[in-house]
Each structure stands twice: as structure tokens, then as C-alpha cells.
Amino acid sequence: MSMSFERYMLDMVQPMRDELTRIGFQELRTPEEVEEKLPNAKGTALVVVNSVCGCAAGQCRPGVAEALRHDVTPDHLFTVFAGQDKEATAKAREYFAPYPPSSPSIALMKDGELVYFIERHQIENRSAAEIAADLTGAFDRFCR
To answer: Which PANTHER family does the record match to this protein (predicted)?
Structure first.
């Protein structure tokens, strides 16, 4: 009995996807979904580029979850999954210029324009609380 690699990966990453969808994120799994949502999101949108790495699990996703308990939060929550939904992730990254591809990463957009970005190197070796503090500062600045 063998399992395809694709099926195996889907099963492995589902809990990582669920960490964000459980707290209200909408997955954008195709380039078309990204094109429909990101440029047309009125107000503010938080976009998390999710990944399977340890810093996504230990710092990024927990930091995002903590930040969303703040009294000021974005209007929309979206996520793409690097390495899994490759075309959707590539399309989302087009909106994050001038920043290079980074997984995980966190973008805050306002009326379809990037206003704040946290790259992987700003996630690695930092605590979830520090990331949450960065995000809540950005929420206070851009989401009011």
C-alpha cells in the first residue's frame, strides 16, 4: 500500500492550514482567488504567507493569533501556503514588492496596497509575543 507524495503532503500540512483558518483566515489557493481578493479588499487586509518551517509554527502563526486578540484588527484575513499552493503564493507575492519572496511572512494591505511587511528574517529567532507586538502596532497605525 503506497500513498502519493501529494496526498501525504496535503495530510501533513492540513493542521498548519487549520491553525489560521480556525481563527478566521480565508485561504487563497489559486492565482484567481488572489486576484479576486487582494486588490479588491476594501479597508485593511492581513495576508499571511504560511509555511511548514519551524518559525512558522513556533513564532509566526502563534504571533498572528495573539495579535488578532487586539482591540484593533484588519477587516480581512487571507493566507496563502508557500510550497503547497505555489501559483497562488507567487501571485500574492506580486503585491508585496519591493520585498523578495519570504516564507513565512506577513503583509498588511490597505485598499489593495501594501503598507506594512514582516519578512522571515524578522520572524526567525523572535518570540510570538514580539511578532504580535509588531503587528498590533501596525494595526493601531493602519486599521483605525
So the answer is: BACILLIREDOXIN BRXA (PTHR40052:SF2), UPF0403 PROTEIN YQIW-RELATED (PTHR40052)
d(CA 36, CA 12): 28
Q: Which of 41, 45, 46, 55 is catalytic?
A: 55
- Secondary structure, 3-state, the chain: CCCCHHHHHHHHHHHHHHHHHCCCCEECCCHHHHHHHCCCCCCEEEEEEECCCHHHHHHHHHHHHHHCCCCCCCCEEEEEECCCCHHHHHHHHHHHCCCCCCCCEEEEEECCEEEEEECHHHCCCCCHHHHHHHHHHHHHHHCC
Q: Which of 41, 45, 48, 53 is catalytic?
A: 53
Q: How many angstroms separate the most distant Cα atoms in the chain?
A: 55
CA distance 88 to 37: 11
Per-residue model confidence as pLDDT tens for the chain (144 residues): 567 887 888 888 999 999 999 999 999 999 999 999 999 999 999 999 999 988 888 999 999 999 999 999 999 999 999 999 999 999 999 999 999 999 999 999 999 999 999 999 999 999 999 999 999 999 999 999
Tell me whether residue 55 is one of the annotated catalytic residues. yes
